[in-house]
Amino acid sequence: MALPPIEIIGAFESTYMPAHDRDVFETTEHDQRWRADLALLEDAGVTRLRYPIRWHRLEAAPGVFDWTETDEVLEHLRASGFRPIVDLVHHTSYPAWLTGGFADPRFGSAYLRYAEAFARRYPWIEEYTLFNEPFSTLFLSGHEAVWPPYLSGMTNFVDLLANVLPAVAEASRLYRRLLPGARHIWTDTCEFHTGSDESGQRYADMANERRFLAIDAFLGRGYDPEGPLGELLEEAGATGSRPSSRAPLTFWGSTTTPTASGTSGTGAARRRPRTRFPLPTRSSSTGSATACRAPSRRPTSAAPPPTGPPGSSTCSSSARSRGTAGSLSTVSAGSPSSTRPTGTRSCSGPTATSTPSGSTGSTRAWSATVR
After folding, report:
1. Which of 30, 176, 254, 314 is the most exposed place for a label (fewest CB within 10 A)?
2. Tens digits of per-residue pLDDT, 41-78?
3. Which spans does this entry mark as compositional bias, Low complexity (predicted)?
4. Are 143 and 153 in contact (CB under 8 A)?
């Protein structure tokens, strides 16, 4: 029996760097050469692609949208027969006036205003990603102090999840109403951890559970308080016992059924998401499994020492992934080797694409498409 051809999905990197007011569209000149770049994709036979919407440029002032460039590009994609999977927030690509980034108390309402405005303006969109790689993005921003707002530790990580994910879950319900025929493509990292001794394996078990925290919260799945992550979440106040100034990490649930997407990792890294969420898995982004040496000393004091014990493996997806040519590559994010304790090693490569479907309350239905 002949196997069906493998579909190649294109992508363009666009991450915004708030401190520099520049994004990767601009540093690669895709913002000027987008027609030529898209023509190269079309010449290669690629018509389905992930395409980011530059929220940071189209809402330069709160509530004031300039759709000029977005209209031009999306109408070109539509007229040329492309099938875009629009990406509403790609890593730190939020408007600069959200000075607190993902910790800004205005984030949720601003994001929902933008998401609704986009859906009403482009009702023909067939596929969308509401928030790109939420685990890796919020982990690097709230746990590892690698990206703004440069916070560290489990409590700050939980704070960011609680500030961002309720709005993403609400957006999923909104898009179910506004774009009933469209599919939600969930994209996140596919990492895997192993330990070199008993202490390291305990840390690896915790990290292997932690990687699903964002999607489990989004889908309303909850977590096992007796599991390897339970004690850490209890200490971080994720069960509702947090100070009144902080929202508990409630597990919100979503009424959309996302299609699973993510970035590729090792075979073991990909198998676990497919077991947990029995859906088709796509390989996305670029990179390969790489061993990272731990430095003899920390180059900066921006983040506190990692919590992983000596002898543990703390790989975060695609720590040293390498892109392909030009602006057509999407490189997955991971914790740099400078954040790993001595004695650790990286055990997995790039992120993985899987398609989970949404749920309501405690009832979860999983399917490959959203109808």
Report:
1. 176
2. 999 999 999 999 999 999 999 999 999 999 999 999 99
3. 253-268, 276-301, 310-363
4. yes
Which long-range contacts link 291-296 to residues 24+ away (Cβ below 8 Å)?
A: 291/345, 291/346, 292/319, 292/320, 292/337, 292/340, 292/345, 292/346, 293/337, 294/337, 294/340, 294/341, 294/342, 294/343, 294/344, 294/345, 295/337, 295/338, 296/342
Domain total in the chain? 1
**Distance in Å from the first CA to the final CA of the chain:** 30
DSSP element (H, E) containing 205: helix 198-210
Question: Residue 258 in 3-state DSSP?
Answer: strand
Tell whether 147 is covered by a domain. yes
Closest CA to 95 of 14, 12, 16: 16
Q: pLDDT at residue 316 above 90?
A: no
Q: Report the alpha-carbon distance of residue 141 to residue 312 in Å, rounded.
A: 22
Over range 109-116, report the average pLDDT. Answer: 98
User: Is the four-CA dihedral 287, 275, 173, 47 of positive or negative sign?
Assistant: positive
pLDDT for 31 equals 97
In this structure, is residue 370 part of a structural domain? no
Segments forming the whole domain that contains residue 263:
10-294+305-364
- 2 found inside a domain: no
pLDDT for res 352: 28
3 within a domain of the structure (yes/no)? no
